Amino acid sequence: MATMESLIGLVNRIQMACTVLGDHGGEGMSLWEALPTVAVVGGQSSGKSSVLESVVGRDFLPRGSGIVTRRPLVLQLHKIERGTEYAEFLHAPRKKFTDFAAVRKEIEDETERVTGRSKAISNRPIHLSIYSPNVVNLTLIDLPGLTKVAVEGQPESIVEDIENMVRSYVEKPNCIILAISPANQDIATSDAIKIAREVDPTGERTFGVVTKLDLMDKGTNCLDVLEGRSYRLQHPWVGIVNRSQADINKNVDMMAARRKEQEYFESSPDYGHLAPKMGSVYLAKLLSRHLESVIRQKIPSIVALINKNIDDINAELDRIGRPIGTDGGAQLYTILEMCRAFDRVFKEHLDGGRPGGDRIYGVFDHQLPAALKKLPLDRHLSASNVRKVVSEADGYQPHLVAPEQGYRRLIDGSLGYFKGPAEASVDAVHFILKELVRKSIAETVELKRFPSLQADIANASNESLEKFRDESRKTVSRLVEMESTYLTVDFFRKIHESDLNPRNMSDKNSRDDKHSRDDKHSRDDKHSRDDKYSNRSGPNAAPDRYDDYHFRKIGSNVSAYIGMVSDTLRNTIPKAVVYCQVREARRSLLNLFYAQIGRKEKEQLGKMLDEDPSLMEKREMLAKRLQLYKTSRDEIDSVAWK
């Protein structure tokens, strides 16, 4: 089995590592809290400092009136076989203190560094390690003394603040309570026993210490307490004789004080029979043996907590991203992985796995048809405008049979209106694609850690989308221009045949009604037909090519043709938009970006992977914690079962 020294030393190392990482106990469950500790609790002037100095064998703690201990002091004692004893502070690594008066001064300075010169308290501990042949392996936590009244210079809440701090330590199930009570005070009024009884009612975690036995009135003793009759604990009470104020003023050597204490118990008629189990030396050995026993007992739960924390940290590192390599190849690989992750999310939006792609269909099914219906064709094909256009097209020579140039001008003018809705559809889809890029970047978990790369991908994607939009605009414009460049001759031939054969008029009317774009054109067409027959003297009579009926007839024919073209464009414009924009975005959104990063140097790639400083700090802290837990687990495995 592991030795006492190895187990306690292991706990000491883990405690120090936890403190470096900001885990110093007193604030919720943590690895620090899972480690067994000994907390020294007592009221002001109960003799706490004297007990600790007796255990250490050195005079090193600040003294004075009021609250002297204003920050928890984690005192780790390390037994060495030989050599000069020295002290080290965790906040001042690699600096050894051999003068213990300097240790006292450093404690005072470090306390004021956090709390200032006020009499306020702080729960941030001071870590002090003492290496000496005169100590046992032991860790003690000296807590501020309990008080009942706030004195001048202290906040009104000081009484409650100190009690809450003490409770935050002693209420933990792994904390061993060293309750200090002065012998010249009724044990029933002891602050330390009161709080120990509340958090440890069975007394299994509490060690009672009675100080100042030599200061009791003559004829009285403390046997009822020391022998457990006044208040029984599961562990034996230990009596301590503190140095007198005269000894302190004379700087009496602590080793001499230890001998004097032992002589007092051996020569005392009241306590002589208890002498082997009294004194600071016995107390230190008793606590060390018990601490080692508790550590051994708690090892399985400590290992379980360490394993759980390792799993939690690994999961969190996976979520925020692992550290990346510093060489150019690793950086390029990371960038490409981030791009692929973004591309997967973007395609899911387009393909329906995530919301957003359906908005593109909305452009084709609602926005485009609505825009086509709102085109000002009624005004353009009104009788007055038709007359004007046809007359201008004829010039000085009126048309002989049919105003073909007038037809062409009217059709060209009508088709010109289609470019607006066509380009609006292109722009609407472009806006949706840009929005999907933004959403995809935000939803790509792997990218959250790289704000610079997010911006680079967004810029590259938008640049590609701009090119796709330009190409799409050219394509839909060509579709409109193609309809204007070459007219469907059969449509007009059938109209001419219907005019020559009145028996086919009903069929012609049906076609006109079918291609008419709205009810108004239908009404105009009907009115034209009525005028046509009312002005004819016979079935084959030709109309006056300059009357209103003639121009309404031209407008109706053009309107029917434009209706047919509108139906065609309503189907072909979405095809062109999807082909030029959606399809290309799905296939090659980041192709240009891939080509660009392939030419970048290592320093440029590093800048693209510049992370949020707070995230980098968090990952660094998690990595340190992970290393702590893994090292702790390995060390426990190496010493626990030797």
UniProtKB/TrEMBL annotation:
Under Gene Ontology molecular function, one entry of this record is: GTP binding
Query: What sequence ranges are listed for the domain GED?
Result: 551-642
Primary localization class, coarse: cytoplasm
Question: Which SUPFAM superfamilies does the record cross-reference, listed alphabetically?
Answer: P-loop containing nucleoside triphosphate hydrolases
Keyword terms, alphabetized: Cytoplasm, Cytoskeleton, GTP-binding, Hydrolase, Microtubule, Motor protein, Nucleotide-binding
Domain (Dynamin-type G): residue spans on this chain: 32-300
Q: Does the keyword Coiled coil apply?
A: no
Instruction: Please give an example of a GO cellular component term from this record.
Output: microtubule
Query: Which PROSITE patterns does the record associate with it?
Result: G_DYNAMIN_1, G_DYNAMIN_2, GED
Q: Where is this region: Disordered?
A: 500-547
Output compositional bias ranges, type Basic and acidic residues. Answer: 500-534
Q: Where in the cell is it found?
A: Cytoplasm, Cytoskeleton
Q: What family does the entry list?
A: Belongs to the TRAFAC class dynamin-like GTPase superfamily. Dynamin/Fzo/YdjA family.
From the Swiss-Prot or TrEMBL record, give the protein name. Answer: Dynamin central domain, GTPase effector domain, Dynamin superfamily
- Source lineage: Eukaryota, Viridiplantae, Streptophyta, Embryophyta, Tracheophyta
